[in-house]
Amino acid sequence: MRPPGWWRRNRWGLVALPVALAAALAASSYRVEAYWWLEKPRDLVDAERGEWVTFSASQYDRTGDVPFTVRVRLDGVRPAEAPFGEDDELDLPDGVQAVAVDLSLAAAPDVPLTSCDLVVRDASGTEYAYQSASPSISQATSPCVPPDARGPELDLFEGIDPDTGPRRPDEWTVSPVVLLPDGIEVAEVLLSWGPPEGLLISAE
Amino acid sequence: MGGRRVARPPARRLNGLPRRAAFAVLLVAALATGRAVEGLMPVDDETVAPFERTGGIGDRVEARWGDVQVTSVAGSTRIEDPYGTVHVTGGVYVVVDWTYTAAGEPQVPAYVALRDTEGRVFRTSVERNPYSSGGAAQPGIPRRVAAAIEVPADAVAGARLVVTLETNPEDHRRDDIVVVDLGLTQDDADAWATSEEPVEVAEPADGPGAAS
Amino acid sequence: MAESGGRLRRLALGAPRQHLTLTGSAAGAVVLAVLVAGGFDPLEKPEADVAPLAVGEAADIGPFTVTVDRMRVVDELPGISEGDDDTRVLALVGTVTATGTTTQYGAMLSESVALDGVPGVPAEVLPGETTDPGEPVPAGDVYVMADGTRLDAVQPGLEYEVAFVWEQDARADVPSEARLVLIGRTLRQSSIDHSDEWLDPLPVVAGDIEVTEPSAEPTEPAEEDS
Question: Hey, which of A145, B128, C79, C163 would disulfide with C91, CB 3.0 to 4.6 Å?
Fold first, then answer.
């Protein structure tokens, strides 16, 4: 009788091989989450300019996860006249333009929404961030809430009451200002209250 | 010799076991050889070395994260930092004005140092060796910054400016670093080591500025 | 209680032989695993030899060479400490150089020079912090004598004349002598990220230094730059 062939002798090993490979890759992939997935907003909700979109995500603080829901509408992107929340005139260096991103938002007044990041992208994907303090501009720290009625903060520090200021309205508008080089057209606006979730709104 | 008196083992074991043992020995030897070769060769240093993007004064040196252009270099035994404080050194303060333009997204060149011809590295600090990036620079908008670093006078000639994003040198592995030859000579060192005229360290500012 | 103790004893005494061998092999495997992982290195820090303090002589403490010259009580250090009614300043004057080829930051320098057992030092303990009275107190800050600015980075190849500064509670007596401890470090590979770092702080030099009071002190040398 012929001895069983190589394939037959090793059939269980062959069956286990893809499983073992997948398990090895999964076991060595923990850095993908820390260094890639959580690095920037990756889990994006898409929206169009002029339409209300409901965005639900989660932040976290001392109390644990803080899920929230906010409704957002991008009203438009226009040349800015003043920094967000400041009365001073813009004093821009040569070759720099300032755009105001007009947003309408709606959320329950007890939802902490101050810690948000706003980024605009051009058609090639280059990102320009909202900055509250830079050598060329000084404006409100949060681009997402009314500077004079920010609503509650995340409960980050023991002994500091996270909700002190005036009540935030149920619906409000903001016009954060982003600096870009001259000649750049804003294609998309990206809002995030912490990666990986984000809201990507087309500005066209 | 006790072995002679022992009954001969079955033929199968006689053929099978030494072959397996030999295979195991060969496998271990191969692994050990690989480990020894790896230890002898500078594999680690070579594979994790950063990519040096080099240039001189006035060159736009391009890196993965943007470009760096040194606009001017000055020196003295004294500097005046942006807060008006005068610092005095027993060596030489080298003050480098340079422009940084981010690529892709806002970024901060947080690591700034002078490297001398002996390989010594002189990094910026907050007070004694003032450098402020002004925070992340928007892509495409040039950011003008200044760094003042105190070095011994014998480190001036041939010194290079090293700029990259990560403050921890361990994190420079396989990343781009910009290395600019400042074109300094012993004459510069001698003149600066005796100069008592404070060099002003400028605050960070946006825009192309007057220099370019 | 008695019953459970009895059960344990019975378990221990009456455990069959195989279990013993099994336990033995398991223990052997654990020892082997620990050895392979590089274990059994002494966790206890080795006791370094503490050399006596020699005023005016350079001491190599690892990242720095420190020469201690004199210690005095300062009512105020222009631009540094406004010595008020509650505190006075103890300033240790000396010279410092970095031994390596790269910048060493000032935090490590001020941690390297400590006062041991001087009453009223530290002058205040922040709420939530505790200090062990037996623990030497590192210098609060280090200032460059030439210009009175804080030394937050020591560049290689330069010698700095500096003042290490402690605040003392003014209610405590001015000491006539203070016990100074220089804390050394060793350059070794960190077990966390395998980078070379100055680690294992240990006292390497200790001894008493005379403290001069402001009244007893001759006119301040014109080292301050105005």
Answer: C163
Please report the sign of the dihedral spanned by the C-alpha atoms of residue C10, residue C12, residue C13, residue C14.
positive
- pLDDT tens digit sequence for B36-57: 888 888 777 778 889 999 999 9
Q: Which of C104, C105, C155, C197 to mutate to test the interface with B (most CBs of B within 10 A)?
A: C155
Q: Report the 10 Å Cβ neighbour count for C3.
A: 7
Cis upstream peptide for A196 (omega within 30°): yes
Task: Give the integer Cα–Cα distance in Å for A186 and A203.
Answer: 7
Length reported for chain C: 226
Q: Do C105 and B121 touch (CB under 8 A)?
A: no
B104 with A126: Cβ contact below 8 A: yes
Chains that touch A (3 or more CB pairs under 8 A): B
> Is residue B143 located within the same domain as residue B169?
yes
The predicted complex's ipTM stands at 0.82
User: Taking residues A119-138, what's their average pLDDT?
Assistant: 94
**Structural domain of residue B73, as residue ranges?**
50-206
What global pTM score does this model have?
0.81
B175 lies within 8 A of chain A by CB: no
Whether residues B77 and B131 fall in one domain: yes
pLDDT digits (tens, 9 = 90+) for C158-178: 999 999 999 888 888 888 899
Q: For the segment B79-121, what is each residue's pLDDT rounded down to a tens digit? A: 999 999 999 999 999 999 999 999 999 999 999 999 999 999 9
Tell whether the model's pLDDT for residue B212 goes beyond 60. no
Q: B171 in contact with A at a CB cutoff of 8 Å?
A: no
Does CATH number 2.60.40 belong to domain C51-212?
A: yes
Residues B94 and B31 in one domain: no
Q: How many residue pairs from chains A and B have C-beta atoms closer than 8 A? A: 62
**Residue B141: closest CA among chain A residues belongs to which residue?**
A181
Q: Total structural domains in chain B? A: 2
CA distances from C96 to B103, C86, C109, C111 (A): 41, 30, 9, 13
- B94: domain CATH number is 2.60.40.1240
The domain locations on chain C are: 2-36, 51-212
Please give the single-letter amino acid code of residue A198. G
Output DSSP code: residue C102: B
Alpha carbon B39 to its chain's center: 24
Q: At residue B5, does pLDDT exceed 60?
A: no
